[in-house]
């Protein structure tokens, strides 16, 4: 275990507010103090299954589950355990992790479908395309408002009712923007948002799909390759794109935020224009992982952390929050935990 601590005094530049599509947010100084966490990092030397941590989830007991390219790792704060195909995992390259309403763990794999693990009975169950899953490459998993499990795949979006094993799948034939889905997120009103590989952002109200693209939003959505989507507690939708930075949508207006380009302090802007993930923290702030670290936005100011601040590696592949509100960040070379 490695400990990295650094204390920084920061000035932030971005003021929260709506702008017209394509316009840059107003830039003013913000002298409010920002939270500077100390980071503790873990690698394969500590017990992590493999160095690429593409997904993280924290269960109700505070146990952390990591999806890596070499299996699943479980960490209870003291001891590490690893699970692979030898135990019942559908495939060892894990791209998504979620905890179901009943405490069961769900693992989306690259090519092996989705696996459900009941820790109480030590039972593994894998679902593949033959069972009703849209595609065996699963990139994101979310729990729906009704307790159903939703899966973003390379062949559409599938929903499973765990109580009945009933499957429903949505594809372009149903109005979905594209079948290759990177990420999904539920809004407070229960509607679903989905980021596609190259067809923009899709919204599903339970009956119909509405599609937003770079063209239809006049550049408000800065790229149609939407890798990450999250919906804040106030209903604002946040989209993180590849080669397109970050955009927010309040239902009427799109606001784009460009990543750090080399001028000024990198800590006061989104970490890059290439975003891997987006997560809403318990305090309402939105966090984004990208190719140059992780960025936190509290509605007024940006705060970015990378290796100089204590992250074990610069690529912010995944982010999750523990019950105590602290952040876990998965990277290309291990995982870091923000201690505050």
The CATH architecture can be given as: 7 Propeller
Helix content: under 10%
The description of the largest β-sheet is: 5 strands, antiparallel
> Helix tally?
0
- Compute the number of strand runs: 31
Going by CATH, the homologous superfamily would be: YVTN repeat-like/Quinoprotein amine dehydrogenase
Mean model confidence by pLDDT: 89
Number of domains: 1
Classified by CATH, the class is Mainly Beta
Describe the protein in words.
The protein is built from no helices and 31 strands. The strands form eight sheets. Strands 1-4-31-30-29 form a five-stranded antiparallel sheet, with no helix packed on it. It has strands spanning 2-4, 12-14, 27-30, 38-42, 53-58, 64-68, 71-75, 80-83, 94-99, 105-109, 114-118, 123-127, 138-143, 149-153, 156-161, 166-170, 181-186, 192-196, 201-204, 209-212, 226-231, 237-241, 245-249, 254-257, 275-280, 286-290, 293-297, 302-305, 318-321, 327-331, 334-339. It has a single domain (9-339), classed as YVTN repeat-like/Quinoprotein amine dehydrogenase (Methylamine Dehydrogenase, Chain H), CATH 2.130.10.10. With 340 residues, it is mostly beta strands. It is globular and about 50 Å long.
């Amino acid at each position: 275990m490695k400990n990295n601590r650094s204390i920084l005094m920061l000035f932030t530049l971005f003021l929260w507010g709506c702008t017209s599509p394509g316009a840059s947010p107003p830039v003013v100084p913000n002298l409010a103090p920002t939270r500077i966490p100390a980071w503790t990092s873990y690698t394969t030397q500590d017990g992590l299954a493999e160095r690429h941590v593409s997904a993280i989830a924290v269960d109700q007991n505070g146990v952390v589950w990591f999806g890596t390219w070499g299996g699943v790792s479980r960490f209870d704060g003291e001891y590490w355990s690893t699970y692979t195909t030898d135990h019942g995992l559908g495939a060892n390259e894990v791209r998504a992790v979620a905890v179901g309403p009943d405490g069961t763990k769900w693992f989306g794999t690259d090519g092996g479908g989705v696996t459900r693990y009941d820790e109480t009975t030590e039972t593994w169950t894998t679902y593949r395309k033959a069972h009703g899953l849209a595609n065996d490459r699963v990139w994101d998993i979310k729990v729906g408002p009704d307790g159903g499990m939703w899966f973003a795949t390379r062949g559409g979006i599938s929903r499973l009712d765990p109580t009945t094993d009933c499957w429903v799948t949505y594809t372009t034939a149903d109005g979905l923007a594209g079948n290759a889905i990177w990420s999904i997120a539920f809004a407070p009103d229960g509607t679903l948002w989905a980021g596609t590989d190259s067809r923009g952002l899709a919204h599903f109200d339970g009956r119909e799909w509405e599609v937003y693209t770079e063209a239809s939003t006049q550049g408000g959505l800065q790229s149609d390759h939407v890798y990450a989507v999250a919906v804040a507690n106030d209903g604002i939708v946040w989209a993180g794109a590849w080669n397109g930075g970050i955009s927010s949508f309040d239902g009427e207006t799109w606001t784009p935020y460009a990543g750090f380009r080399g001028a000024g302090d990198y800590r006061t802007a989104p970490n890059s224009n290439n975003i891997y993930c987006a997560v809403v923290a318990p305090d309402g702030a939105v966090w984004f992982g990208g190719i140059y670290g992780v960025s936190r936005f509290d509605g007024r100011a940006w705060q970015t952390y990378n290796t100089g601040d204590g992250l074990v590696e610069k690529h912010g592949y995944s982010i999750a929050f523990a019950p105590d509100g602290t952040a876990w960040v998965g990277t290309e070379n291990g995982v870091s935990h923000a201690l505050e």
